[in-house]
Amino acid sequence: MLLEDSKVQIDLTKGASHTLKNLGIVYLSLYLDHDNFSLTTPDTSGELLKTPGCCTENLHVSGVANTARHLLLLLDINHPLLGHHAGCLSGTKEVSPWTRIIEITFPDSLASAADLQEVQSTLGFLQETLNAPFIGHNQRKIRQEATRLGLLPEQGVLSHDERKALPVIRRYVHGLHLGATDILLFGMISAKLHSLGCDISQLQCDDLTQKWFERMIDIAQAFEPFYMNFLRENVDLKVELEMETSNKEIGIAEEKADPVENQGEVDKTLLLKMDEIANNYQYQELDDFPVKWDSLSDLLKPQRNKVNNTNKMFQLQSILAGVHLCVKHLRSLNLPKIRIVDFCSGAGHLGIFLAHHFPDCHIILVETKWGSLRYAKERIDKLGLKNISLCLAHMEQFVGRFELGVSLHACGSLTDKVFQQCIRSSAAIVSSPCCYGKIVNSESLLYPKSERFRNIIYDHNEFFKVSRLADHESNNENYMKCVDIDRTEHLREYGYQFVGISKLKPLTCSPKNNLVVAFMD
């Protein structure tokens, strides 16, 4: 039990606490322990992340799946609702169908349902899931558990072959036992029906889905009165789709990859033009900032298998030079505070390093993987750093204001999403890109990014062929350079006065050794 005597603050969208995503989290918190969670609707001007979310000490969590998992992990790292190996809803929405259902598909479709019949139509995926036989990683153990639960006959009643041929019937969406997904789904459905003045008994479902509803009703009996009271006090009986702010110009929108046609050779005339642009561009020289690594705690040094990662240390030292330049400029503006966001922070090597070197700045780590942030938190606590916060969230869920955005080898298009975030906040940028061959068009990102390059490369597939050449180990320097020149030209179009491409030193510390530095006057 990690909660001890303190309460976990669950943040709900101000003015929209009736949204289904919020209500799924409310339902889960009431199921766990309605006395240990405080529900708030914070002033959105001070938020770091989109809600729903939760906050404990210096850790901020955003999104339905992340918030649900974190509430459960606070109670027990092996909480039964997290399922086998605590894997329930652990994948991102890009790779996990259930996370995508919980975060986007189901709440959006359910919220738009105008009557009982339309609610009924949104439950097709649920009925399909519950009617599919349960097949897991250890089928023998699953069948033993199903027998114990009375879902399969005891051995001896049927022959071995007859018994083996019987499918294992699901009791819940992930198999035989209740999971967080069941509670989130039921909480949303219950809230929507309440808003329509309907009852679950009015739904027309097949037998297995009806039994799922009956089990969920039994489970909810202990806390259902608290939930209904919450709905009466906070919901205006209009469960609507939460409208999320988007900006198509710098859009931080839901990504839908545009398939790339990458057949054939790159036009040689285009390659000659890229070589010309690259050869005429001069790299920006930054002042060196030598780091006395021997005098630093091992907790500040990036390590691999308990051995100092020398290349990563050189990378951090090079980025420190860019950050020094930007912080010096920001201080000249007499800003009340300087907030530095380390996007795609991983285990926090860069962010923790910066928190140590800039004690008067506040550092925010933004990362999607809890395992990486947990390791970062352990190091932060041991170092006693007080100027650092952690955000478990996708990049597009971060909505806080900041003055400097940094990233080290954010893969492919993630580097451009970092730039989008910085443009949104008019923030300075220090970023070393990576995986040029993985950039791809989406609703929020179109390549080439700058008008200059769009006037040269009319077909984005030709640009992607150039970017893929940048990932080749031989003769890739000019192609990497051109992709990043396109990025810097795009930044100039948004008002960045100082924009330059420098290099990580020594060049051998990484094959992807470009460093983009930019700020506004």
Shape: elongated
Q: Proportion of β residues?
A: 5-15%
Radius of gyration over C-alpha positions, nearest whole angstrom: 26 Å
Oligomeric form of this entry? single chain
How many alpha or pi helices?
A: 18
How confident is the prediction overall: mean pLDDT?
85
Strand order of the largest sheet: 2-1-3-4-9-8-7-10-11-13-12
Q: Return the CATH class of the domain at 8-132 and 170-234.
A: Mainly Alpha
Task: Briefly note the CATH topology name of the domain at 8-132 and 170-234.
Answer: Glutathione S-transferase Yfyf (Class Pi), Chain A, domain 2
* Distance linking N and C termini: 50 Å
Low-confidence stretches: 1-6, 14-18, 236-263
Q: Any guess at the CATH architecture of the domain at 8-132 and 170-234?
A: Up-down Bundle
Tell how many strands the DSSP assignment holds: 13
The major sheet is characterized as: 11 strands, mixed
SSE blueprint and pairings:
Blueprint: E1 8-11, H1 20-33, E2 37-40, E3 53-56, E4 59-62, H2 64-75, H3 97-111, H4 116-122, H5 124-130, H6 139-148, H7 160-165, H8 180-196, H9 207-220, H10 224-234, H11 268-279, E5 303-304, E6 307-308, H12 310-332, E7 339-343, H13 349-357, E8 362-367, H14 370-383, E9 388-392, E10 404-411, H15 414-424, E11 428-434, H16 451-454, H17 460-469, H18 477-493, E12 498-503, E13 514-519
Parallel strand pairs: 1-2, 4-9, 7-8, 7-10, 8-9, 10-11
Antiparallel strand pairs: 1-3, 3-4, 5-6, 11-13, 12-13
